[in-house]
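User: I've been trying to design a sequence by hand for this structure and keep getting stuck. Would you show me what you'd pick, starting by listing the structure so we're on the same page?

Assistant: Good idea, let's start from the same input. This is the structure you sent:
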């Protein structure tokens, strides 16, 4: 039955926009303006302004060229001018779309014609058959015989009224007078989203960086928005449905020179709104990228952090217990402030970091996700794990002094194989109530459950941190 779709496709190509006597049809050619607000939660708000010539009395308006992923319950229609006497009596959304499969299903139990060519004579002949089923191979009845599939092409007499060529909104309107009216239709649609991507280039000594931000829009809503007014909303908008995760795999090239910023940012309710300063076309099934921001010579703080584990403080370890060599994480911290050439609220997204090697070629050195970051807050980006700086720990003493109280001694060895001095931050996550009894280095209580050391480690050198702590759990 593989040959059947050929003729059906020909039929589909000749189908005009749906129309009938007494029915108005509006397509994108009536559109005078369109605005799209895209949220980073896989939805968009579409405002479609069209000029439509209404008759006096009741009008059935078939509003076509809407997004295939439209959420029908969100549709709202209103006249732009304060025109009295225009009211909506009914609203419907028709989405039973034309396709070869749908056409065949509509003719189950009915007679169809099958056009075939006689193998011996080469002449075409038409066989009349009743379509019994379309599950798997179509099943036909010809006379008193049943055929599973028939060679040739199926000819259908007409397109069923219940099928339409594209998703369509249908309104029954009442107008007190005839004439052209500007009508704005708004609705939410799924499958359109955006996210921010950031490219950061570090300088030679890792103290400053150039940063460019890009907006990446992914439109799978089933509609094209031509010359649209574009707005983007950044923030965690609550929705009464499961959250849809969106993941992009495309990466902007670090060498690409960003254009000047094109978006104006403003606070909006508990979110932030980014408005493009010009109209743009967002095509269906398209990923579009535009510059969000650029900033140069941003001060950067690089941190090496050894993060301990709270589980170490619950048990006694013998000298033969080999605790693993601890990885030391590498982080970049950037203050999002005007004095650092930033200060715009940063939408959540992926930060990708590059640095030039000795030949001047940019090399990728790490990436991380950041959350929505207001101005004057700090962006923290994890780059990876240090190669030439390692940590090792051992428990030097353990004493149970009460049922819920223990004293223990620890030794943390930091080894630096780099040709320059580094500073390592050691975070020890403490359980319960705790008190440091002695320590070889200056420390601070970073929060209720964190003991912190900031330790310089000389080039090609080693430092041992020792401390004794009492823990009550």
């Amino acid at each position: 039955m593989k040959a059947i779709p050929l003729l059906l496709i020909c039929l589909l190509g000749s189908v005009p926009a749906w129309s009938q006597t007494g029915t108005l049809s509006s397509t994108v050619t009536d559109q005078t303006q369109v605005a799209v607000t895209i949220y980073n939660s896989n939805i968009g708000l579409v405002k479609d302004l069209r000029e439509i010539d209404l008759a006096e009395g009741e009008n059935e308006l078939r509003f076509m060229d809407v997004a295939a992923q439209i959420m029908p319950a969100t549709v709202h229609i209103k006249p732009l001018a304060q025109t009295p006497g225009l009211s909506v009596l009914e609203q419907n959304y028709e989405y039973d779309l034309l396709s070869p499969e749908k056409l065949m299903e509509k003719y189950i139990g009915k007679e169809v014609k099958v056009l075939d060519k006689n193998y011996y004579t080469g002449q075409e002949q038409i066989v009349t058959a009743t379509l019994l089923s379309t599950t798997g191979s179509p099943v036909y009845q010809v006379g008193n015989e049943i055929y599973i599939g028939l060679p040739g092409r199926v000819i259908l007499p007409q397109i069923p009224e219940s099928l339409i060529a594209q998703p369509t909104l249908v309104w029954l309107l009442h107008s007190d007078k005839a004439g052209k009216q500007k009508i704005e239709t708004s609705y939410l649609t799924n499958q359109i989203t955006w996210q921010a991507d950031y490219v950061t280039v570090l300088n030679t000594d890792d103290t400053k960086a150039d940063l460019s931000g890009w907006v990446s829009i992914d439109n799978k809503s089933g509609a094209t928005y031509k010359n649209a007014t574009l707005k983007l909303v950044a923030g965690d908008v609550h929705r009464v449905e499961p959250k849809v995760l969106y993941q992009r795999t495309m990466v902007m090239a670090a060498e690409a020179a960003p254009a000047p910023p094109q978006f104006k940012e403003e606070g909006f309710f508990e979110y932030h709104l980014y408005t493009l300063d010009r109209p743009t076309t967002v095509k269906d099934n398209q990923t579009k990228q535009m510059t969000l921001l650029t900033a140069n010579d941003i001060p950067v703080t690089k941190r090496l952090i050894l993060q301990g584990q709270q589980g170490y403080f619950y048990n006694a370890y013998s000298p033969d217990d080999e605790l693993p060599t601890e990885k030391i994480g590498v982080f970049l911290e950037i203050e999002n402030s005007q004095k650092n050439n930033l200060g715009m609220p940063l939408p959540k997204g992926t930060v990708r970091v590059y640095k030039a090697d000795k030949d001047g070629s940019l090399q990728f050195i790490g990436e991380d996700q950041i959350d929505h970051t207001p101005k004057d807050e700090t962006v923290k980006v994890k780059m990876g794990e240090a190669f030439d700086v390692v940590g090792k720990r051992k428990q030097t003493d353990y004493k149970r002094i009460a049922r819920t109280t223990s004293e223990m001694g620890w030794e943390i060895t930091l080894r630096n194989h780099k040709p320059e001095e580094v500073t390592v931050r050691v975070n020890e996550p403490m359980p319960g109530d705790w008190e440091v009894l002695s320590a070889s280095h200056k420390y601070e209580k970073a929060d209720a459950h964190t003991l912190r050391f900031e330790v310089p480690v000389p080039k090609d050198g080693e430092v041992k941190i020792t401390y004794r702590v009492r823990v009550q759990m």
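That's my pick for every position. To get oriented when you compare it with your attempt: The CA atoms of residues 1 and 150 lie 6 Å apart. The chain has three domains: 4-97+163-189, 108-155, 302-472.
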